[in-house]
């Protein structure tokens, strides 16, 4: 047992590292990136539509004019949630079964309306729709930073020597810091001190451009793993809100 445990731990570690390295070569990874990239524009539309519809419907409901607006808003939330379930299944691999509205148990229109309004699926869908904007802002920021920075560094050997192109690290002024470690010893002080200086660095040779390209590949690998983790969180959130009561299954 004592001999097999280290071997098992090493195998598990190698498998985890292999999974991290293979993330850029999986089709599901780019499904996650597409889902996260679409979250921002969709989140804006969902949030504006839901907030405007609910506020107008509630404020005008005393005149009965708001009731059709509320009904249209609720119907829109239900349709959006249905579309999001399909997207989460196809792009994130989420396990979201079709929800049960319980309409077959209510015979009269009034009972059907009450059944829909008291169903946790409706309120979970509304929470998901309203939260989509916050998810979209965070996701869009990470996607843009990862892809723009990673791809620009990765392609440095293709354009580093083009006329007018400036590739490298450019600072407005050099950054200099002094790091010191001093230890009291009897009546003396013994220590070490050294200066760290960071200046601008312009790539003008192919080896330097290749070094940037390697850095870009690392940024893309790290960023795609972060996005994949974000996609996993989004899948669990979709399972929890779009099909409440079935997330544990």
UniProtKB/TrEMBL annotation:
Keyword Transmembrane (UniProt): yes
Segments forming domain Putative sensor: 35-238
UniProt entry keywords in alphabetical sequence: Membrane, Transmembrane, Transmembrane helix
Presence of keyword Membrane: yes
Membrane spanning residue stretches: 32-52, 58-82, 133-160, 209-235
Pfam families, sorted: Sensor
InterPro entries referenced in this protein's UniProt entry, alphabetically: Put_sensor_dom
Protein's name according to its UniProt entry: Sensor
Species of origin: Halorubrum xinjiangense
């Amino acid at each position: 047992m004592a001999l097999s445990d280290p071997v098992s731990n090493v195998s598990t570690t190698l498998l985890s590292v292999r999974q991290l390295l293979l993330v850029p070569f999986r089709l599901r990874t780019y499904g996650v990136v597409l889902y996260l990239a679409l979250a921002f524009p969709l989140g804006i539309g969902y949030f504006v539509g839901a907030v405007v519809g609910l506020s107008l419907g509630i404020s005008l409901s005393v005149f009965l004019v708001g009731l059709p607006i509320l009904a249209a808003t609720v119907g829109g939330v239900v349709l959006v949630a249905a579309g999001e379930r399909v997207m989460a299944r196809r792009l994130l691999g989420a396990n979201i079964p079709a929800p049960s509205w319980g309409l077959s148990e209510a015979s009269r229109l009034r009972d059907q309306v009450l059944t829909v309004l008291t169903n946790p699926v409706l309120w979970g869908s509304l929470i998901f729709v309203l939260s989509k904007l916050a998810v979209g802002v965070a996701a869009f920021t990470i996607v843009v930073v990862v892809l723009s920075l990673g791809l620009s560094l990765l392609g440095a050997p293709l354009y580093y020597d083009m006329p007018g192109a400036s590739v490298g690290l450019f600072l407005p002024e050099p950054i200099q810091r002094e790091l010191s470690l001093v230890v009291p010893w009897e009546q003396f002080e013994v220590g070490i001190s050294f200066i760290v200086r960071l200046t601008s660095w312009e790539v003008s040779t192919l080896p330097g451009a290749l070094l940037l390209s390697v850095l870009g590949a690392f940024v893309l690998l790290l960023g795609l793993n972060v996005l994949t983790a974000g996609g996993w969180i989004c899948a669990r959130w979709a399972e929890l809100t779009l099909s409440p009561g079935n997330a544990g299954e």
